[in-house]
Structure formats: structure tokens, C-alpha cells
Amino acid sequence: HGGIYTTSEDVHRFLRRLIGFELLPEAVTRYFMELKVWEEEKFAYGYGFRHWDLPSGQHAVGHMGAGSGSSARVFWLPKSDAMVIVLSNMQDVAGDVFLEVTKRMAG
Q1: Is residue 65 a contact partner of residue 71, using CB atoms and an 8 Å limit?
Q2: Where does 1-107 have alpha helices with state H?
């Protein structure tokens, strides 16, 4: 069985450096993040980045996933420049926590 080993601080540092164009040139980063494919009305993808119009009305850009014994939601909210990082050692927990956090952030 696989697993995940990271901290929210590590993920935050990585994402801040990525969107600050410290890891890849700005043109490459923007190209990866651009909308490429619409999955549904509120979900779209760039290359590895999901764009999500949240129920709270916020737009989020990031990535999410789950597997046996873990789940994660890692998103940047461009309008407020906030990061929301939820890491869990349970498969289907991060999504609900993420939506609750962003709902409370929106007021």
C-alpha cells in the first residue's frame, strides 16, 4: 500500500513558490494553470490544476485527490490570495472539511 507523507507547511511553501514563479518560468506556470478542459459547469482543468467555482462563490485553483487511507484538497483562492490546504489520514474527509472552511471564509 502507498501513502502520503507531507505537512501542510510543506505544501503551502511549494504552492507559494509555484504561483510566485520561483519553480518554473512565469509563462510555463501560467500555461499549466490556464483552463483547458471543462468537466462540468463549475469544474475545469488546466494541466494538473483544477479550476473550481465553489458553492461559496469563490474561485479556486489547485488539486485534490484521495486514496486508501488519505485525502487532500490543496487550493489557492486568487481573489483573496488565500491558500486552503486540507490533508487527512482518512479517504473521504478532506473534501467536506475543505468546503466547510471555504464557506466560513466567504462569510
Answers
A1: yes
A2: 8-19, 26-33, 94-106
Looking up cell 473534501, which residue turns up?
A: 95
- On whether the CB atoms of residues 32 and 48 are closer than 8 A, the answer is yes
Label residue 6 by pLDDT band (50, 70, 90). Answer: confident
**Rounded distance between C-alpha atoms, residue 23 and residue 33, angstroms:** 14
pTM, full prediction: 0.82
Question: What does the block give as the cell for 23?
Answer: 519553480
3-state class (DSSP) for residue 73 = strand
What totals of helices (H) and strands (E) does the chain contain, helices first?
Answer: 3, 6
8-state DSSP, 4: -
Classify residue 25 as left (phi > 0), alpha (psi -120 to 50) or beta.
beta
Model confidence at 3, in pLDDT bands (50, 70, 90)? low
SS3 47: coil
